[in-house]
Amino acid sequence: MSDPHISLVIPIYNEEELIETLFVRCINALSKVSDNFEIICVDDGSTDKSLNKLIECHNKDIRFKVLILARNFGHQAAYTAGLEYAKGEYIAMMDGDMQDPPELLKEMYESLVSESLDIVYGKRTERKEKFPKRLFINTFHLLFKKIIKIDMDVDVGNFSMFNRKALNAFLSFKERSRYLPGLRSFIGFSQGSIEYSRPDRMRGEAKMNFGKLFNLGLDAFFSLSNFPIRICLFTGLAGVILFFLATVYTLVSKLSGIAPFGWSSTILSIYLVASIQLLFLGIIGEYISRIYKEVQNRPLFIVKQFID
Ligand code: UDP
Ligand code: MG
Question: What is the pTM of this model?
Answer without folding.
Answer: 0.83
